[in-house]
Design the sequence.
């Protein structure tokens, strides 16, 4: 471990995915603090568009913190401070001129615990498009809801019960409902924080299948504790440790021959 | 390499390695005995080698089963994954080495007394070289020593070169004295088998390199086996 102590950030050759896909999100020198607590340290990372990027790392290493800073969810946490630059499509999202509500429509989020509103399935999905004025009339709104539920692979299971409460669905269905809700506002980026951790293997496989379909259209960032899941769904993998981005690279490389010993020890179950 | 949090995982990998080292020892022994049987025309020892081959075959299956089970249970990644892949491949190389040694032993039955002793001198030398290669590559595997493995890899051309010269020599004898054709042919096959054993030792070396470095060895191996393009109207020079 000693030879690693002073080497904080590994800069591997440019990942292949960034050569084929345009950059969507570029973070440069990002620090995040919760009061005194320095949770993300001088992080720089480029996230490709139309691809899945996975954040992995031990509990408390700052994955969720950094994920939340991408759509400024951290703004809602008292005492939380973000410095440095995060650009989405070249636009600095921490610029004072940015409208945060608009930003969160562009950058949707799906959480670990499915959190449908205590409303009907239809209303869960219709809510976003309605407040953002995306549908000009009732038919257009219905169209968006149907489309989003289909894209979230939930339509067939709920088409006959659209006006029943979303909370009455199974966990896996609720999570897909939340994904439908996130994509209903036609975002560019979807952030997912451990979206499958409460789901069984079948529901998990469904979500993974869905993620793979969605990356055709969106830039997806997923936090996961499952190495296998990261290996299965992502194109780029970023390994975090103690608030530091240790290594980011093509997923195929990271899981077969990682460059950093800390990455290796973590993914092979040697961190103790 | 530090330990896994899950101790049973370490045990799985250690067991796999122990099985391979036992298998390697067995393959070495088979090769040594088959050479001895051939050189001393010892048909009893040859019979023993032929019999013992089953054991190596059984061990290959055992390694495969252990590897598959470990993959299923542990979902290995990175070096652990390479470790298991490489174990399967090395087991298969060792099994082939066992087969080839068995073949050499079989030839010794056919050659027995018909052949002048001096003819097998080159073959004996080749046997020593391949024994040394196998021993060294097994040591390299035991120690995860990619440098040593590379040394084995580079030395394979010595075996190839020797094989070329034996090949030419045997051709010459056959042309000079057709009564020698049968024995020389058997000897030629035995020589080829030993040359192949060298190739399997090199395969193992390549796998050790991959295990340690996480990348396959891309360089082209120096190859000196020219027998496939050696014309027939050779005269001894
Ligand atoms: N609201 C908060 N106030 C103070 N500290 C926080 C807050 N949220 C997170 N932290 C701290 O910041 C660090 C990073 O937390 P974060 O939730 O980003 O980790 P994580 O990598 O997502 O972990 P996990 O895998 O357990 O979800 C931790 O030390 C955590 O205790
Ligand atoms: Mg988290």
Sequence:
């Amino acid at each position: 471990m000693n030879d690693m102590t002073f080497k904080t950030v590994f800069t591997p050759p440019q990942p292949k995915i960034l050569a084929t896909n345009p950059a969507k999100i570029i973070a440069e020198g990002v620090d995040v603090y919760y009061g005194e607590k320095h949770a993300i340290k001088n992080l720089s990372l480029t996230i490709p568009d139309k691809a899945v990027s996975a954040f992995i790392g031990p509990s408390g290493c700052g994955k969720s913190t950094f994920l939340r800073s991408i759509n400024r969810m951290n703004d809602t946490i008292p005492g939380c401070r973000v410095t440095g630059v995060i650009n989405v499509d070249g636009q600095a999202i921490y610029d004072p001129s940015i409208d945060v509500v608009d930003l969160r429509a562009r950058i949707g989020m799906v959480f670990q615990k499915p959190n449908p509103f205590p409303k009907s399935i239809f209303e869960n999905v219709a809510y976003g498009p309605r407040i953002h004025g995306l549908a000009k009339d009732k038919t257009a709104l219905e169209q968006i809801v149907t489309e989003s539920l289909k894209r979230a692979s939930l339509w067939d299971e709920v088409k006959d019960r659209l006006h029943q409460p979303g909370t009455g669905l199974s966990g896996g269905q609720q999570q897909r409902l939340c994904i439908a809700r996130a994509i209903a506002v036609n975002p560019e980026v979807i952030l997912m924080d451990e979206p499958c951790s409460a789901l069984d293997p079948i529901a998990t496989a469904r979500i993974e299948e869905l993620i793979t379909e969605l990356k055709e259209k969106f830039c997806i960032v997923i936090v996961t504790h499952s190495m296998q899941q990261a290996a299965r769904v992502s194109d780029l993998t970023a390994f975090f440790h103690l608030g530091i981005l240790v290594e980011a690279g093509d997923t195929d490389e990271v899981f077969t021959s990682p460059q950093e010993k800390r990455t290796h020890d973590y993914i092979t179950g040697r961190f103790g | 390499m530090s330990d896994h949090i899950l101790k049973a995982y370490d045990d799985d990998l250690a067991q796999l390695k122990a099985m391979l080292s036992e298998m390697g020892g067995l393959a070495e022994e088979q090769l040594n005995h088959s050479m001895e049987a051939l050189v001393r025309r010892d048909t009893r020892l040859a019979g023993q080698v032929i019999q013992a081959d089953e054991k190596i075959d059984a061990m290959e299956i055992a390694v495969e089963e252990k590897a598959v089970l470990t993959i299923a249970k542990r979902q290995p990644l990175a070096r652990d994954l390479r470790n298991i892949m490489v174990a399967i491949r090395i087991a298969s190389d060792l099994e082939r080495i066992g087969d080839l040694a068995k073949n050499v032993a079989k030839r010794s039955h056919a050659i027995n007394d018909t052949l002048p002793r001096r003819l097998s001198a080159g073959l004996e030398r080749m046997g020593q070289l391949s024994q040394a290669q196998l021993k060294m590559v097994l040591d390299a595997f035991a120690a995860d020593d990619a440098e040593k493995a590379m040394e084995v890899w580079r030395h394979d051309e010595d075996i190839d070169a020797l094989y070329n010269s034996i090949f030419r020599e045997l051709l010459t004898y056959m042309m000079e004295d057709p009564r020698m054709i049968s024995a020389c042919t058997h000897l030629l096959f035995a020589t080829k088998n030993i040359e192949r054993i060298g190739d399997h030792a090199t395969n193992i070396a390549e796998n050790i390199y991959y295990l340690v470095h996480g990348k396959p060895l891309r360089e082209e191996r120096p190859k000196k086996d020219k027998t496939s393009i050696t014309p027939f109207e050779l005269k001894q020079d």
